[in-house]
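Subject: for your reference before the review

Hello V.,

The reviewers asked for a structural picture of the protein, and I figured it would be easier to keep everything in one thread rather than splitting it across files. Below is the amino acid sequence we used in the manuscript, unchanged from the supplementary table.
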Amino acid sequence: MKRKFFAFIALISATLSLSSCLSSDDETVEYTHDTAITAFSLGSLDRWSKTTAGKDTLLKANVTGSNYKFYIDQAQRKIYNPDSLPCGVRDTAVLATITAKNSSPMVWMDIDKTDSITGYYSSSDSVNFSKPRLLRVYSNDLTAYATYEVTVNIHQQLPYEFHWSTLAQQNAQLAALTDQKALAVGSYVYVFGKTAESMKVYRSAITDGANWATVTPNVSFDNDDFQNAVALDGKIYMLSNGKIYSSTDGAEWSQVAENASLKQLIGASSQYLYAYDATGIQISKE
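And here is what came back from the structure prediction:
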């Protein structure tokens, strides 16, 4: 490929020399050594999807690539799309429309051997963008070039899908809970759970999730009180026998209110607690 490219350069040089010789005495042909990529866009894109039977299928020309703007950072020599393409877009065969200053020639560098030329740019040739690619643009007089890194960003997960990974395996403490409720408060995740004997509280660092420590409350809660645990503004609130308690660590609790009519704490917004009583949902603003 390198031999072909150097032959291509030699051919262009010879053509330029011939053009100069054929020009009249009154005409001067000048070729600049200035070069840059000035525009970049993608064509129609194929996208992988699932059939109703759950099998993979390729939807041809399913995404309009030109709807996704690409930024050209001339200082860093980087080309990228700030808004990622939809999940499932096939990135191994993509058509790109690229414009260079002064219609300068462009070549793609090899996807793995980035110091080797893999071919000349053509708007009709598909490109593998499964990883960042280097695009080299030469000046018209072939005395200089600039290399751009092209990155095509694609969402890696569908917006309505959540992928979970197992952190705590065969944890006997958590496995013993017949019901449970988890809250994220401060730097920890708390699990409030029910056993036949009592309510249990465990916590793990929010960056961990694999190692859990027992938390012993200074208040004796009923084993069904776990369902009343609610987080608000860095504190945990618990309803037990008409009394509302708060804690910052799950261990030290203090009573903050009393309302015998309340049946259950059900949640919290950014400012308020919500609870059930015999008449419906009640809001606490204090």
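For the response letter, the relevant points are probably these. Confidence is low (pLDDT under 50) at residues 14-24. The radius of gyration is 32 Å.

Happy to draft the paragraph if you're swamped.

O.
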